[in-house]
Design a protein that fits this description.
Length: 314
């Protein structure tokens, strides 16, 4: 799509690069490529790991999460993450309705205290905290993957994590991100110009202008690839904020119900970046989450429509 006549861009200038095609986006968007890239992602090992929540979301109070049709309670014993079935082994009470005392969750019905050790048939599941996201592995280790597949992240960053549910399957969430062609037309409030500049079997790179405010924008090259079946990562490979990543994780809740957990890790080589993060990080995180949520209100509708079309054609 051609840039608006009054568009103003700032930041690092990018080297001119010819697009793969001069066709309009609706002609360039190739469903066969999207499907093949999705098939490639689904063949990657995950180890049976699922993203549970933002790391800072889980604290001293127990919280309930549903993953793959099972309910879990998560809390911290000091700084250690504990995730376990959200049903007391005594009479089945929801442990997430209880409280944490000295590192153990206390059942709200009869006061049974449960910690990080097995109690009869009740046993915590394997979990992992990478500092930005909390992960859970409900079953045994798979494919020799002992820890979650975490993409390369910048060494210093401002992180913000957005959470939203959608009526679809995880594959529909990943497919949405494997279609960058829809960006300008579907999200005109956030993108002003986009063209594909590189495309391989399993990755795609777009030169895109992100709107900052009105006609003001930043142009970057953004690469999309999947490191595992339920994750797609956008990495800024050139332009302002190079090295920044947006990790979009799709965790199944129930059949045809998925949680989108998107972590934005923004970075910059500018010397004042760290000072800005230190002074304004608490104010910037809600703004980043708000912008991500705004996009996912629309993209959830895209994913849900894709699921509905697939379901009715089965």
């Amino acid at each position: 799509m051609s840039a608006p006549d009054n568009l103003i861009t700032f930041g690092h200038k990018l080297e001119p690069k010819d697009p793969l095609s001069i066709e309009p986006d609706w002609m360039q968007a190739r469903l066969p490529w999207i499907e093949k890239a999705l098939e490639h992602a689904l063949r990657l090992p995950s180890g049976g790991w699922y993203v549970l929540a933002a790391s800072r979301e889980i604290g001293k109070n127990p919280r309930r999460y549903r993953v793959n049709s099972e309910d879990y309670v998560a809390w911290r014993d000091g700084g250690r993450l504990v995730v376990a079935p959200d049903a007391c082994p005594h009479m089945g009470a929801c442990l997430s309705d209880g409280k944490v005392r000295e590192g153990s969750v206390v059942c709200p019905w009869h006061g049974l205290e449960l910690g990080g050790e097995r109690h009869g048939a009740w046993e915590p599941v394997t979990s992992y905290d990478d500092g930005v996201l909390s992960w859970v592995r409900p079953g045994p280790e798979q494919d020799g993957v002992t820890r979650p597949v975490i993409p390369q992240r910048p060494s210093r960053f401002l992180d913000a994590v957005m959470r939203k549910e959608a009526n679809c399957e995880p594959t529909d969430i990943i497919a949405n991100r494997l279609d960058p062609w829809h960006g300008v037309h579907f999200h005109p409030h956030s993108f002003a110009r986009l063209k594909i500049i590189d495309q391989t079997e399993d990755a795609i790179t777009a030169r895109v202008v992100y709107r900052v405010f009105g006609r003001l924008g930043i142009e970057v090259d953004a690469r999309f690839h999947c490191p595992e079946p339920r994750t797609i990562v956008m990495t800024i490979v050139a332009g302002e904020g190079a090295g920044s990543v947006v990790e979009t994780h799709a965790t199944p809740i129930d059949p045809a119900r998925t949680t989108v957990i998107e972590a934005t890790l923004a970075t910059s080589e500018r010397p004042q970046f760290q000072a800005v993060v230190g002074a304004l990080g608490g104010l910037l995180r809600p703004l980043v989450r708000w912008r991500a949520h705004k996009l996912w209100v629309e993209d959830a509708a895209y994913a849900e429509r894709r699921y509905e079309l697939r379901r009715t054609r089965r």
